[in-house]
Design brief:
The protein has helices at about 5-15, 30-45, 80-85, 100-110, 140-150, 155-170, 180-190, 195-205, 210-220, 240-245, 290-295, 315-330; strands at about 20-25, 50-55, 70-75, 90-95, 115-120, 130-135, 225, 230-235, 265-275, 275-285, 300, 305-310. The model has no long low-confidence stretch (mean pLDDT about 95). It folds into two domains: about 5-205, inorganic pyrophosphatase (n-terminal core) (Alpha-Beta Complex), CATH 3.90.1640; about 210-330, Roll (Diaminopimelate Epimerase, Chain A, domain 1), CATH 3.10.310.30. The protein has twelve helices and twelve strands. The protein is about 40% helix and about 20% strand. Helix 2 (about 30-45) links the parallel strand 1 and strand 2 (about 50-55). It is globular. By secondary structure, the protein is of the alpha/beta class. Bound molecules: guanosine-5'-monophosphate (5GP) and manganese (II) ion. Guanosine-5'-monophosphate binds near residues 302, 305 and 309.
């Protein structure tokens, strides 16, 4: 479903009327959340607005190139209290779930300041006061592009780089089923406006630590299979992250790799967020919709890339999640 003109008009009015904007995205931000923030923030700054980007998680190293002006800050309840309370609008990007906004979500929610949500996740209820939501969009960055175009804004090289990063990362480098013809047209335009496809790819994907790659190698050696090879799964303990000198954010991308295996339909990655919480990532090659499994355990996500953070240790959850995946494949 595409977004109607009235919704764009409403958001455009907010952007023009407001002076102070606080932008945020989900915990453990990815290229789409960050690219959307930087793209929209840059556009607003070009309009002469005061813009603050506050995230609950630290900026992952490989996205540092988006933060050339140091505008992306890690949220701190004390330091940023005033910034939150004096905002005219909140722009909540790539997320429609208070839980995944953690502490900043709690603060934002307490205020009467209008909340604008721009997102491409399937919705499970009302979120925010003004919405720009299209679950058919490849990425939130794609929606921000449409918004700037709707506002007759100029796509500067900074904006182009940020939005290209959004699209690149959320389409798995233009290979997932969300890579529509429109996505290629937008990406083409962004390149024309100054995004360097080669440079951005290198910055995002070709600066990974040796520790991360060694951790990944250890996982490949421990891959497990179920349902006649249609399900691939693996676990990553805190201990193995430590012993490789890697951290939880280093696991980004691991769940996608087993797609290369012939016959694999669904991939499940279990990682130890800490001793009492397990992060589950679900991926599908397109024949099975996996966000229902995530929802069943309190999480959510896209049809073919979903997840949930569960209370409890990994070994507690492996069996129940894999049984649910088996039901999905055999149902
Ligand atoms: P990842 O496995 O890369 O962390 O997440 C893949 C997708 O699953 C995300 O884009 C997000 O939509 C969704 N997701 C991951 N973790 C959670 C969670 O704890 N709750 C919800 N609602 N969605 C999640
Ligand atoms: Mn996204």
């Amino acid at each position: 479903m595409s977004i109607n003109k009235e919704s764009f008009e409403r958001v455009k009015e907010c952007l023009h009327h407001g002076q102070r904007f606080v932008l945020t995205t989900h915990v453990n931000p990815d290229g789409d959340g960050l690219g959307s923030e930087v793209g929209l923030a840059s556009y607003l700054r070009d309009l002469g607005k005061d813009v603050f980007i506050l995230n609950v998680s630290e900026l992952p190293d490989n996205y540092d190139f988006l933060n050339t002006d140091g505008a992306i800050k890690t949220y701190n309840g004390f330091i940023h209290r005033e910034t939150i309370l004096t905002a005219d609008y909140f722009l909540i990007l790539d997320i429609s779930d208070w839980n995944r906004l953690r502490d900043i979500g709690k603060e934002i929610r307490k205020t009467d300041i209008p909340k604008i949500c721009i997102d491409h996740h399937p919705q499970s209820g009302e979120f925010g006061d003004v919405q720009l939501i299209n679950d058919q969009a490849s990425s939130t960055g794609e929606i921000i592009y449409e918004l700037i175009k709707y506002c007759d804004g100029k796509i500067t090289p900074t904006i182009a780089t940020a939005l290209y990063t959004s699209i690149l990362t959320d389409t798995g480098s233009f290979k997932f089923s969300n890579t529509s013809a429109r996505v290629f047209r937008i990406a083409g335009d962004l390149v024309e406006c100054g995004a360097s496809s080669e440079e951005i790819y290198k910055l995002v994907y070709e600066r990974q630590s040796t520790n991360k790659v060694k951790l990944f190698a250890s996982i490949l050696n421990r891959l497990r299979f179920e349902e006649n090879g249609r399900v691939a799964w693996f676990t990553i303990s805190k201990e193995s992250m430590h012993s490789h000198g890697a951290k939880l954010s280093d696991t980004e991308g691991f769940a996608d790799y087993p797609r290369v295996i012939s016959g694999v339909e669904v991939i499940v990655m279990f990682s130890e967020a800490d001793k009492s919480r397990t992060k589950v990532s679900l991926r599908s090659k397109g024949n099975y919709v996996v966000n229902g499994v995530a929802r069943k355990f309190g999480g959510g996500g896209h049809q073919y890339a979903a997840g949930v953070l569960m209370e409890g240790s990994m070994h507690q959850h492996v069996k129940s999640i894999l049984s649910e995946v088996a039901l999905l494949l055999n149902g």
